[in-house]
Amino acid sequence: MDRGGSDQCPSGHRLRPPAPTKYRPPHLRNPQSSSSGGDPPLHRQGVGRSSEIGPRPSPPQRTSLLPLKRQPPQPLLSSPQNSENRILPVRRPESRGIVGRSVNLLVNHFLVKFNPRVTVYHYSLDIRQLVSRGKRPPRKLRNKAGLRLILNKLFLDDQARFPVNRTAYDGEKNLYSAVSLPTGQFRVELSGEDLSTQTYVVSIKIMNELKLSKLEDYLSGKVPYVPRDILQGMDMVMKENPSRYRISIDRHFYPSSFKVEDDIGRGIAAYRGFQSTLRPTAQGLALCLDCSVMACRKPLPVVEFLKEHIPEFDGAFLDVNLRRRVAHALKGLAVRVTHRLTKQLFTIAGLTAKSTRDLWFDFVDPKGKDPTVKVSLVQYFREKYGKEIVYQEIPCLILGRNNRTNHVPMEFCILTEGQRYRRELLDESRQEKMEEKCLARPPERRKTISEMMQDHDGPCGDATRNFGLQVEKNMTSVEGRIIGPPDLKLGAADVVRVENEKRQWNLAESSVVEGKRIDRWALIDFSSSDFPKLRAKDFITNLRNRSKSLGIVMEEPLLCHFTGMRDFSSVSRLEELLRSVVQEGSKKCWNKLQIVICVMAEKHHGYKYLKWVSETRIGVVTQCCLSNHANRGDDQFLGNLCLKINAKLGGSNVELIQRLPHFEEDDHVMFIGADVNHPVSKKSTTPSIAAVVSTVNWPAVNRYAARVSPQDHRTEKILDFGSMCRDLVNTYYRLNKVKPKKIVVFRDGVSEGQFDMVLNEELSALKKAVFDDHYQPRITLVVAQKRHQTRLFLENPGDGGATGNVPPGTVVDTKIVHPFEFDFYLCSHYGRIGTSKAVRYCVLWDENSFTSDQLQKLIYNLCFTFARSTRPVSLVPPVYYADLVAYRGRLFQEAAKEFHSHSIPPSKPHTFDLSFYKLHPDLQNIMFFV
User: Where is the PAZ domain (predicted)?
Assistant: First the structure.
């Protein structure tokens, strides 16, 4: 069946239609005037005028657009550079899911109605400061608040042609308008506090005319490609109202003040805000809004902030240690000054070497009588500003702006609002407070979201209405389904029917399916000279007894080595220690150790050294734990430790009784998980880490092999995806004497804008690497998305458990899903704290012809096979394991970087060496990462 006139390839996938001829809308010669009545007045920051500069350019001649001839379908392996041959995601099966009992849900999607006859105008802005001839040109304007101030001044001076409430501005280059605006260059003059006038030139250029009828065609399935430019424009319109009244931080909007109960101490407070995005859904265009909490520094005077943040600070003399702590707490923060009238913001560059009392500078007499007068800073502030400096024993702040620095006493500086405080810098008690505020229970979260939708500074405002958008302020009601859990196999003949609320099974009276015998192991106690010290004899006895109860035979350790945590601080010392333990153990049994159990006194950054050395250089499995946990010796802790050890050594903890849906016993299906771990954007030389894992057994599908590889900084495409998958397919063949007939790939960490890359580049690389004339497995490609804002709430709290969350197995595939592509939301885990987040699964390619029920049940059942858990996990295990492997690769990178810096002279540039990330051959095909 031809849907929307799109071409289809033999597997049922749609080929992207030919790209239309690029059209650049003409300049608008007769911009329509629009009354701005009812618009709230802009805050007037200065006096001046704006004027148009020069004549507007004449419009170009409009060319006729002839229809292009549709290209015939092309195979997937054609060049990905040819846009006419690119594959679009598969469409949803004709029948939606029906398996499971129904449950009524509310979702934080709010229906947005729009007029398809409306046209939104997209303009490009360029704002530059006009300087006198001969003066050095200033740096490019980057401050969003300053750019918005200049634009507001232009709009304020000519409200007839520039109606502010009919526009939406992103604070940088993009301006969207509900009416056509004049184009060209316009002069804007702003008067500062010192009565000087700054002149700016605002260049406005038409970029596109966004016809909302195209969005309606997409929502109805008439066209297969998403009009991203229209969605981006409308999303900006929805963000215009909160951007005027709230503080924007990383696409979130927060108020300028905090609630008293959200003060967590030390000058830090929890700010409650929201994030939102527009989504095309089966019910139409929807606004998805979710609340968020962020730790920020309170907008206090600097001295008051320091008194709260550093209890030892009292405004008196700073010793060396206290000075260092003060400098660390303040450097890079933005402040405004109070000793003079100005709205300028300054950045703290550091502290002066001398105290305020001892600071002198050369004062230049404006009258030129005595240009070399020495003036103390205390005297200068007294005479110039009439301010007496109270805190004279502490340093001044060095404030930087526009490559200039000046010294200002701390008491005349106030921290600006909205300055994030990273959660990892909080102490343990305040981290717990933040976690408590972030993990709101479902009823509280649902109430908060509804209130934010109603707030005057929420997403609904005058600008939204003036663009013809109407937002339904009640959550979307949708019918979900609860899929039943599978039956599990434990021990030799134990069958577990998981029917309880948490979907949890108990190992107290059961054993694992296959316990790996542990004859050769060693214990390294790193806590022997630290606190708390391990009671090694008791720990070994308790661990062996718990292993035995789980069906895992564990002999006495071949050797025990006792040392201190100091050995964790050095890569070379750790390597020497591990090698000596492995060699000594091997001599005693004439074979290599199976595992080394390492007990630490505390969490330590040397953990990454241990994993890198053991897993890339020596090739021995290690299992770490803390001495205080080991000393307690409770069954749950020891049981979890045994599950991890058994999985690492190739044992099987739990299996499904029935085969996976849609597959036969002799199908030999391989499941692949792929993910990329990125460093922070500021570390431009640090590589991203790509990880690919795959199952190596069938039909149990609970043993995995892993491959890890570094690649270019923040590159999302897995550059070696084809070769890594080929290696894993060959590994499957070596272990099973047959290649998999079917492959299901789960890709993690990609946004919808990257679906095309995954579908047309990574999948293409997989097929090129694996396919040959005699082997062409059927492939299904699914993207798992965790980073979305969609939240599911029970309409009737009685339908859930004690926490109020949706039950495990809740699936939604109507109304809030894509209009026609194959996706669904599945909450597979039991939410103990906070509000559960379902995972969105998007099917991009499907040669195995799954129905909705089959794929949903398949993923849910797989979530019961996670090796180190006795309940279903929130994410399908191939992706979960890929996350763990990618993070392990990040630890390799951090350890290798330090090793690299000591082994290579500093004069040589830093480059990453693939050998530092290559797994030892003995560990490549076992689950060392769980």
Answer: 301-417
Q: Kindly give the pairing relationship between strand 404-408 and strand 14-15.
A: unpaired
Distance, in Å, from the CA atom of 451 to the CA atom of 453, rounded to the nearest integer, reads 5
SS3 content of the chain, % helix, strand, coil (to 5): 30, 25, 45
pLDDT in the model for residue 896:
83
User: How many CA atoms lie less than 13 Å away from 434 in the CB half-sphere?
Assistant: 21
SS (H, E, C) 406-431: EEECHHHEEECCCEECCHHHCCHHHH
Q: Which of 69, 68, 76, 70 is nearest to 13 (CA)?
A: 76
Q: Please state, rounded to an integer, the average pLDDT across all residues of the chain.
A: 88
Tokens 């109407």 sit on residue = 470
Q: For residue 913, what pLDDT is reported?
A: 78
434 phi and psi angles, rounded to 5 deg: -65, -40
Give counts: helices (H), strands (E), the chain.
19, 41
Number of Cβ atoms within 10 Å of the Cβ of 31: 18
**Beta-sheet pairing, 263-265 with 404-408:** unpaired
Residue 432 has pLDDT above 50, yes or no: yes
In three-state form (DSSP H/G/I as H, E/B as E, the rest C), the secondary structure along 613-631 is HHHHHHCCEEEEEEHHHHH
Say which DSSP state 821 is in: B
Q: Which residues pair with 893 in a beta bridge?
A: none
List the one residue out of 209, 137, 218, 141 whose CA is nearest residue 180: 209
* Strand ranges across the sheet with 559-562: 559-562, 521-525, 595-600, 621-626
Query: Which stretch of 39-48, 295-304, 538-547, 670-679 has the lowest confidence by average pLDDT?
Result: 39-48
Question: Distance (Å, rounded) from C-alpha 255 to C-alpha 249?
Answer: 11
How far is Cα 597 from Cα 425, in angstroms, rounded to an integer?
Answer: 30
Question: Among candidates 658, 256, 210, 703, which has minimal Cα distance to 468?
Answer: 210
Give the separation between CA 714 and CA 526, rounded to whole angstroms.
36
Among 57, 30, 24, which residue's Cα sits nearest to residue 182?
30
Whether 10 has a pLDDT exceeding 60, the answer reads no
- The single residue listed with the structure tokens 């109070």 is 338
Cα separation, 34 vs 161, whole angstroms: 7
Cα separation, 71 vs 83, in Å, equals: 11
Q: Where is 383: in which H helix or E strand?
A: helix 377-385
pLDDT in tens, 98-138: 999 999 999 999 999 999 999 999 999 999 988 766 556 65
Q: What is the pLDDT of residue 139?
A: 54
Structure tokens at 250: 């990383």
- Name the pTM for this structure: 0.88
Q: What is the pLDDT of residues 900-917, one digit of tens each?
A: 665 544 434 445 678 889
CA pair distance 872, 882, nearest whole angstrom: 17
Torsion of CA 641, 644, 649, 650, to 10 degrees: 140
pLDDT at residue 495 tops 90: no
Report which of 742, 721, 736, 702 is spatially closest to residue 880, judged by C-alpha positions. Answer: 702
Token duo for residue 247: 């503080």
* Domains of the chain, earliest start first: 302-416 (2.170.260.10), 515-648 (3.40.50.2300), 666-786+843-916 (3.30.420.10)
Q: How far apart are CA 839 and CA 817, in angstroms?
A: 12
Structure tokens at 251: 């696409």
Question: What distance in Å separates the CA atoms of residue 915 and residue 904, rounded to the nearest whole number?
Answer: 15
- Residue 374: which H helix or E strand, with range? strand 373-376
Helix, strand or coil, per DSSP, at residue 574: helix
